[in-house]
Design brief:
This is Metallophosphoesterase. The protein is of the alpha/beta class and 310 residues long. The protein is 25% helix and 23% strand. It is built from eight helices and twelve strands. Strand 6, helix 8 and strand 7 form a beta-alpha-beta unit. The protein binds fe (ii) ion (FE2) (2 copies).
């Protein structure tokens, strides 16, 4: 099974926004985003990434949040249209919200993200879902993909997140379910669970209960955690706590970044899972509009050993 991982698309679609909608938090965030983000993030780059993924033999696509900038209906609609272009999207896509998808209390309260992406939040184990729709679980071949919500409407200049206590409890129960026992377990959550070499847990943009979430996932022997938020390629490893083995914690970076050096340019990952274990992580990098994405980095965890011919 091969899982594609895109993230932090930050689709900008503001044509139908009235100025008064920028009052409150959007006044600061909106102006800032208009000045900076519109130059940096491009939906055309996301379309190129999806074209590349379609040609790379990927079975499933995970999107780890921040699909929008201001959580506007117009942005969600534009992002939903791009996702719908994925072949068999309703069964091949898992998506969770980021802090930008809960940018205002209104967007969070009315469940705007959940309304636009309800097709991708349907759970194969609905008995564990809370009212808002999380945690959800997609069972595909020998893999279970569990989606968590860390989105939080925050004050100005804050991008913090939190997985609600009751949601984490439900996720723990779900991960204990018999039907997940022999499967490779993937959890998707927008905020990072660990600091990496370039990102400490900054006070104003961290996951407030990161330690608690990470400990729970390690206790439940999660194999792979996929996140976004830092816009930075990162592959971290920690031991599982319930059995021998490794929990990998990975971010591809922002997929929609149009230019810049390889650190900043658009990226997506592909995880190959073979015989119930992570075999390889490939990272692909946006090079130019002419050439699209190219292979950038690969980390092999398990070499396939050919049986010697008799
Ligand atoms: Fe982001
Ligand atoms: Fe974020």
């Amino acid at each position: 099974m091969r899982i594609g991982h895109i993230s932090d698309l930050h689709i900008l679609a503001i044509s139908d926004v009235r100025p008064w909608e920028y009052l409150n938090k959007r006044l600061v965030g909106g102006l800032n985003l208009l000045l900076n983000r519109s130059k940096a993030h491009s939906s055309v780059v996301v379309e190129r990434a999806l074209e590349a993924l379609a040609s790379l033999d990927v079975d499933h696509i995970v999107i780890s949040g921040d699909l929008t900038n201001l959580a506007l209906d117009s942005e969600f609609a534009a992002a939903a249209e791009i996702i719908r272009s994925i072949e068999s999207a309703s069964t091949r896509v898992s998506v969770v919200p980021g802090n930008h998808d809960y940018y205002t209390p209104g967007a969070a309260k009315e469940g705007r993200f959940e309304r636009h992406f309800k097709d991708y939040l349907k759970s194969d184990l609905p008995e564990y879902q809370l009212e808002r729709g999380y945690p959800f679980c997609h069972l595909r071949d020998d893999v279970a993909i569990v989606g968590l919500n860390s989105g939080l409407a925050t004050p100005w200049l804050f991008a913090t997140g939190k997985v609600a206590e009751d949601e984490l409890e439900q996720a723990a129960r779900l991960l204990d379910d018999e039907r997940l026992k022999s499967r490779f377990k993937v959890v998707v959550v927008h905020h990072p669970l660990m600091a990496d070499e370039h990102h400490r847990f900054n006070f104003n943009r961290r996951l407030l209960n990161a330690d608690e979430v990470l400990t729970t996932l390690r206790q439940k022997n999660v194999d792979l955690v996929l996140h976004g938020h830092n816009h930075y390629l990162s592959v971290l490893q920690v031991p599982k706590l319930g059995e021998p083995g490794t929990t990998y914690v990975c971010e591809a970076g922002s997929t929609s970044m149009e230019g810049g050096d390889p650190v900043m340019a658009g990226k997506f990952n592909i995880y190959t899972i073979e015989d119930g274990a992570l075999a390889e992580i490939e990272t692909h990098l946006f090079e130019s509009h002419e050439s699209g994405f190219r292979p950038f980095r690969s980390e092999v965890f398990r070499q396939r050993v050919e049986e010697p011919a008799e």
